[in-house]
Amino acid sequence: MTRVTQLDIARKAGVGRSTVSFALRNHPGLADETKKHILKVAGELGYVPDPMLSALAAYRSNSRPKSFKGTLAWLVNSSGGTDWGNGWDKKGPYDQYFAGASERAKFYGYEIEKFIMDVNLPSRRLASILRARNISGILLCPQARHDMEMDFPWDNFSVVTFGYSLVRPSLHTVASAHYLNTRHAIQELVRRGYSRIGLVTDQNTDLRCGSNVCAGYLVEQMIESKLSSIPPCFIPFVHDDSESVERLNDAQKLRQYIKLHELDAIVTSDYHLLTTLNMAGIEAPRDIGVAGLSLQSNRGRLGGVVENSLQIGAVAMDLLVGMVSREEKDLPKLPMRTHVEGFWYEGQSM
Fold first, then answer.
1. Is residue 200 classed as helix, strand or coil in its secondary structure?
2. Which helix (H) or strand (E) holds 306?
3. Domain ranges for the chain
4. pLDDT tens-digit map of 51-63
5. Mean pLDDT of the chain
6. What is the pTM of this model?
7. Fold identical between 6-63 and 70-176+311-340?
8. Exposed, middle or buried: residue 300 (CB in 10 Å: 0-12, 13-18, 19+)?
9. In this predicted model, what pLDDT tens digit does every residue of 279-302 receive, in sequence order?
10. Under DSSP, is residue 65 helix (H, G, I), strand (E, B) or coil?
11. Closest CA to 41 of 11, 62, 71, 75
């Protein structure tokens, strides 16, 4: 049997071959009725794309300079009394998400523009601005709290978000592989001979990670015979290296946790834990080993698993551009969760 071609479909459907090509690629400029008719004819003829021709077309497309296709939105939700609009791009993973997404957007011929939704620019007005500017794709910045809900006219847009902080609605999400990163860090500590390993994290941070940090920690204790069963310690983070009253209280609580369970190592989501340990009179790695989880960079004394934030942003953009090209709008019926694993950084804390 000969392969069914796009020309065969065009002849039976009574249209030009270019129209068939547009229909098979779900081109937004083609009428829905025409698309349905052509797809029906393609199905009746048993049309299957030629993978070699598809690969050749993709190669030719990627080899050509990308023409400007439009603008996509980076949306920051500062509504509901959350002071987030001026903080999303401080030094941390979220500016790396944006940088990774922006670089990948250029590859596809898009640019990203930032929008802040707050009392001055509520959701309905913002949506009308995006529609007026023909912006149909949104990357939604992580939310300020772990239990956020968001009201927005989703039916007009393709949307991808990050992490687990948005509980309603459920959107396609790209996140750091917190569960796997935690298990990776513990396995590295066990390989070095540590056996009494504790977890120090902020409870709000763990909830923002979908409780995947605690899950990975507890699973490793269940399946690794060398590990002692030790509960996690929840300490609110101080997001700098200052010697404040809060950090002094944290240092006392941390010292009690280490002494009570006779710890020889800690895994932590706190990037500044070495400062807190020093205030408690404990030095790593002399007195205790410390491995970070989802670290922001592979620099500094604290070793552990580095979150690949640039890649997370790039993967989110890959997903969004695909949705925009397929005109996949509104809330997804089956939300996808895409996890990006980090990489190991030795540091000087183990």
1. strand
2. strand 303-306
3. 6-63, 70-176+311-340, 178-306
4. 666 666 655 655 5
5. 87
6. 0.79
7. no
8. middle
9. 999 999 999 999 999 898 888 899
10. coil
11. 11
Task: Give the three-class secondary structure for 327.
Answer: coil
Answer whether 295's CB lies under 8 Å from 271's CB: yes
Which conformational region is residue 91 in: left (phi greater than 0), alpha (psi within -120 to 50 degrees), or beta? beta
Class of domain 6-63: mainly alpha
Residue with tokens 């609009």: 85
pLDDT tens profile 182-234: 999 999 999 999 999 999 999 888 998 899 999 999 999 999 888 989 999 99
The three-state DSSP-derived secondary structure of 40-63 is HHHHHHCCCCCHHHHHHHHHHHHH
Which CATH number describes the domain made up of 70-176+311-340?
3.40.50.2300
The token pair at 341 is 């694993």
- Helix boundaries (H) for 262-344: 273-279, 309-325
Decide if 57 contacts 50 (C-beta within 8 A).
no
* pLDDT in the model for residue 180: 96
Selecting from 3.40.50.2300, 3.40.50.620, 3.50.50.60, 3.30.420.360, what CATH number does the domain 178-306 have? 3.40.50.2300
> What does the longest C-alpha to C-alpha distance in the chain come to?
81
**Cα–Cα distances in angstroms (integers) from residue 31 to residues 9, 26, 27, 122, in the given order:** 17, 10, 9, 33
- C-alpha 190/C-alpha 178 separation (Å) is 18
In the numeric block, which tokens belong to residue 302?
A: 């604290």
Please report where in the chains the tokens 């070793």 appear, as a residue: 303
